[in-house]
């Protein structure tokens, strides 16, 4: 969070809050925001950028902290506005030849549509006629004025935007027309009067006529938009820090709504959906920028610009090549053509789909623009995980009901919903939903996050829906014009008259743009088939995406220091993990081996009240455990297998106390009570715990029930001995769970070493079995130096460690209050999903340092869920662990992130 500043403290005179575009560059994003820094960079490159200036993020931070702008800001803005007016040869809002400006947000990280922009600042009743005379187009002037009042009214004055939309629709209906551009000057003049009445009625004040007041209020509104609900929600979704603030860009207006020789567009230097090179983007004649991104009017493909205005098209293609070479990446570009003159309004490194990210990274390597290390940094584990999701089985029988633009790939199935509120409500009830809209706007963000996919009947690859969906990795189909979406009636109608009501299941394919009625079956991703070994990246017919993934993964594996193991409890999972690149098993949870039919055996063991019954139960379990371990050692031959001894909360292996009590009570009422049930109930009552997760489990269970851990150690040792005698290479590591003090570990270790020696003698082998512990209690982490004296390795159990550090019950808290904590910004992300570096992470670092101080060769790993989380993997690399362990499906993600962490660390060291 930003530090709170005293509003009465004068800012230092050296503080500079405003920069001309000529003063900045692309490396000043922290100060000028992404948009301002890149406008400055394009200005420096000599590209046609309308003159302007940037109010810095530092000014925003002062405003957000104190509630007022920095004392020096107004004078600085006036100085830069004077310079802009001199450069343009006109004054802001002057009556005869007005200078108009846009006031646009621009944070360090792209937040498409989440913050505010106001165009045509400076127009008023006094200057609209001057603009008409200057442009020689009365319709254009009144269209620009109605846009200003509409945007300013909604954004700055807080008027409900629907009121303006309804008035605009009424004006079109009155003339019997469908699109805005068919309204003439008289219609727009009347609409301006209507809009001004709306402002006066809703705000109690007239629309401001003084140009500088318009600009100052718009700047303040942009600052305020940093903390709107939708902006905060987007930042949480994208993990953007909340204390960065936004810059404000004040730019002289250029107009795309001056007639058919004018227009506005968005372009990409490569296809953001596939990564393929070509001409990609949207163009709209006689329009301003918001018309394109809002999806209100359907655009034409950028390639059509060549026929519409070849000179501007050729210049744009040259600029796009210049920018991609300069930025060495896919660039997202906004431009306007004003009566045949091309202007660049924005460029940024473009958001892309997961598949495009991998393809583009390898393409840029082949073009010599970046090296392999940089290519590895251009992709991430979250993108790789997306590529591993299933896709639709195109060979299955399915009913295609429409087709739109493939805006963001994936296979999404869910019930049709037509507003964000319903999407969120149904999603929270466990329903999978597809959000269907004519077009989305920033207010739909909640619903877009909740939905499996987004379908719109308007807009293209650069519309709000497409850009936001790609950023979130969410499946999206846009511009399905043949589908008529009626949000008020909550239905969608196809061309042949088929009606999709709210609640009907639909399927959308973000890779082809196809929309299907009902649920379409899915098949494995080709990337998963590659990892499974069913597709060879070197084959001639191999999928291009698979080849790109293979190249980047191969480099990640070469440079990473962290090894990657699997959490696997059976031979099938172990074999799959090995195919996915696992370098051993980091966690075999033996309690999972005792579910099903074996559960009763463990129950008998726990409830045994004499040595004879206990020995009988252990004798039953030993051969079963041994067989389990033989299979695991075969699957992972030559690789380490860490076996955690039994660690269940006790209640998992005992009869439910409520059900048992009811059964006994009913039997007693019938006077036919079973003596065994009565004894069982007494035993369960005796062992019943209020908080089983902090009760008799882990090492405590092994110490309280004689022979339990010895049986498991014997099963491990005998399985390893048999495997070794069969010329195998078993590498078992025995892990003692829930240790809080070295004395616990010493007792178990002494018993285990005795059992291992007996097995070695009986089988005539020498076994390399190591013994270590899980560090999952704060006390274990704080006394790690002592515990290391009796441990060959540590494996951090970060699930329990997070639970005990925070005092959270992970079985309960996520459903009870985590949503509120995330919404209030207490968490940026659940600490069970990404490691809490300050709290849990501090204990991990302490344990690493203390453990290695005692035993320099101490092996260190992690086996909690964090082992497969991309951000957490980077932390474990920095903390000095030797390996991470995760579920089989997450292994490729962990491998990639381990490589990225190593490359990033090396890059930091070289700098």
TrEMBL record:
The keyword RNA-binding does not apply. The active site is at residues 464, 863. PROSITE patterns: PEP_ENZYMES_PHOS_SITE (PS00370). Its EC number is 2.7.9.1. NCBIfam families: PRK05878.1 (NF004531), pyru_phos_dikin (TIGR01828). Residues 547-898 form the PEP-utilising enzyme C-terminal domain. Transmembrane segments: none annotated. InterPro entries: ATP_grasp_subdomain_1, PEP-util_enz_mobile_dom, PEP_util_AS, PEP_util_C, Phosphohistidine_dom_sf, PPDK_AMP/ATP-bd, Pyruvate_phosphate_dikinase, Pyrv/PenolPyrv_kinase-like_dom. It catalyses: pyruvate + phosphate + ATP = phosphoenolpyruvate + AMP + diphosphate + H(+). Residues 30-66, 73-298, 306-355 form the Pyruvate phosphate dikinase AMP/ATP-binding domain. Coiled coil: none annotated. Mg(2+) binds at residues 776, 800. It comes from Streptomyces nigrescens. One of its GO terms (molecular function) is kinase activity. Keywords: ATP-binding, Hydrolase, Kinase, Magnesium, Metal-binding, Nucleotide-binding, Pyruvate, Transferase. Belongs to the PEP-utilizing enzyme family. Residues 431-513 form the PEP-utilising enzyme mobile domain. Its cofactor is Mg(2+). The keyword Lipid biosynthesis does not apply. Substrate binds at residues 589, 644, 776, 797-800. This is Pyruvate, phosphate dikinase.
């Amino acid at each position: 969070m930003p530090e709170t500043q005293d509003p009465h403290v004068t800012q230092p005179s050296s503080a500079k809050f405003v920069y001309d575009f000529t003063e900045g560059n692309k490396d000043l994003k922290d100060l000028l925001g992404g948009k301002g820094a890149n406008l400055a960079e394009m200005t420096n490159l000599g590209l046609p950028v309308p003159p302007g200036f940037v109010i810095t993020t530092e000014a925003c931070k002062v405003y957000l902290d104190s509630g007022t702008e920095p004392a020096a800001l107004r004078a600085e803005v006036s100085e830069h506005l004077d310079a802009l007016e001199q450069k343009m040869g006109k004054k802001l809002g002057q009556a005869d030849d007005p200078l108009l400006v846009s006031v646009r947000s621009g944070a360090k990280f792209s937040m498409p549509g989440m913050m505010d922009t106001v165009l045509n600042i400076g127009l008023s009743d006094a200057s609209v006629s001057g603009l008409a005379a200057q442009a020689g187009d009365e319709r254009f002037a009144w269209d620009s004025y109605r846009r200003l009042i509409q945007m300013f009214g909604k954004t700055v004055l807080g008027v409900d935007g629907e009121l303006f939309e309804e008035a605009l629709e009424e004006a079109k209906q009155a003339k019997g027309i469908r699109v805005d551009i068919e309204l003439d000057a008289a219609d727009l003049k009347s609409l301006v009067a209507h809009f001004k009445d709306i402002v006066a009625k809703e705000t109690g004040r007239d629309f401001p006529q003084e140009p500088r007041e318009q600009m100052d209020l718009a700047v303040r509104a942009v600052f305020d938009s940093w903390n709107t609900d939708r902006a905060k929600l987007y930042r949480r979704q994208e993990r953007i820090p909340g204390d960065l603030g936004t810059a404000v860009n004040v730019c002289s207006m250029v107009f795309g709504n001056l007639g058919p020789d004018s227009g506005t567009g968005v372009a990409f230097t490569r296809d953001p959906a596939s990564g393929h090179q070509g001409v990609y983007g949207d163009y709209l004649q006689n329009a301003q920028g918001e018309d394109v991104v809002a999806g209100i009017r359907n655009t034409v493909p950028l390639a059509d610009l060549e026929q519409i205005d070849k000179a501007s098209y050729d210049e744009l293609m040259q600029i796009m090549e210049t920018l991609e070479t300069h930025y060495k990446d896919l660039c997202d570009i906004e431009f306007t053509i004003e009566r045949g003159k091309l202007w660049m309004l924005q460029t940024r490194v473009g958001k892309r789909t997961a598949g495009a990210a991998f393809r583009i990274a390898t393409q840029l390597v082949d073009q010599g623009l970046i090296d392999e290390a940089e290519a590895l940094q251009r992709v991430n584990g979250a993108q790789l995980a997306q590529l591993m999701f299933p896709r639709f089985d195109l060979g299955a029988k399915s009913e295609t009901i429409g087709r739109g633009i493939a805006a963001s790939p994936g296979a999404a199935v869910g019930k049709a919903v037509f507003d964000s509120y319903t999407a969120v409500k149904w999603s929270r009830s466990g329903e999978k939903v597809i959000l269907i809209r004519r077009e989305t706007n920033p207010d739909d963000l909640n619903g877009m996050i909740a939905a499996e996919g987004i379908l719109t009947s308007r807009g293209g690859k650069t519309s709000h829906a497409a850009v936001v969906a790609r950023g979130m990795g969410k499946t999206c189909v846009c511009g399905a014009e043949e589908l008529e979406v009626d949000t008020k009636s909550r239905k969608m109608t196809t061309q042949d008259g088929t009606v999709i009501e709210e609640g009907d299941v639909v399927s959308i394919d973000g890779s082809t743009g196809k929309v299907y009625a009902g649920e379409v079956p899915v098949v494995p991703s080709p990337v998963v088939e590659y990892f499974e070994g069913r597709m060879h990246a070197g084959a001639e017919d191999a999928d291009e995406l698979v080849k790109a993934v293979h190249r980047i993964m191969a480099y990640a594996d070469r440079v990473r220091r962290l090894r990657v193991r699997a959490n696997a409890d059976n031979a099938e999972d172990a074999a799959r993990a090995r195919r996915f690149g696992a370098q051993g098993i980091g966690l075999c949870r033996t309690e999972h081996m005792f579910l099903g039919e074996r559960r009763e055996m463990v129950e008998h063991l726990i409830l045994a009240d004499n040595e004879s019954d206990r020995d009988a139960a252990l004798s039953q379990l030993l051969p079963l455990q041994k067989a389990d371990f033989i299979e695991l050692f075969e699957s992972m031959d030559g690789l380490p297998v860490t076996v955690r001894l039994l660690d269940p909360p006790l209640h998992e292996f005992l009869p439910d106390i409520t059900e048992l009590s009811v059964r006994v009570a009913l039997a007693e009422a019938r006077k036919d009570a079973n003596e065994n049930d009565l004894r069982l109930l007494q035993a369960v009552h005796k062992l019943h715990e209020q908080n089983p997760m902090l009760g008799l489990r882990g090492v405590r269970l092994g110490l309280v029930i004689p022979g339990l851990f010895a049986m498991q150690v014997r099963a491990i040792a005998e399985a390893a001995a048999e495997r070794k005698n069969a010329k195998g290479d078993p590498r078992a590591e025995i892990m003692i769970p829930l240790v809080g003090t070295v004395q616990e570990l010493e007792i178990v270790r002494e018993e285990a070493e005795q059992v291992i020696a007996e097995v070695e003698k009986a089988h005539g082998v020498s076994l390399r079995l190591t013994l270590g512990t899980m560090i999952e209690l704060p006390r274990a982490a704080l006394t790690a130096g002592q515990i290391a004296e009796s441990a060959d390795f540590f494996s951090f159990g970060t699930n329990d460690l997070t639970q005990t550090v925070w005092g959270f019950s992970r079985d309960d808290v996520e459903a009870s209050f985590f949503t509120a904590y995330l919404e209030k910004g207490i968490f940026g992300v659940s600490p069970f999903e990404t490691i809490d570096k300050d709290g849990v992470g501090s204990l991990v670092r302490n344990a690493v340092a203390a453990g290695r101080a005692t035993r320099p060769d101490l092996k260190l790993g992690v086996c909690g869920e964090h082992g497969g989380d991309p951000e957490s993997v980077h932390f474990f690399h920095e903390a000095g662990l030797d390996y991470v362990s995760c579920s089989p499906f997450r292994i490729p993600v962990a491998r990639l992130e381990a490589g990225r962490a190593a490359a990033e660390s090396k890059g930091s060291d070289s700098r």
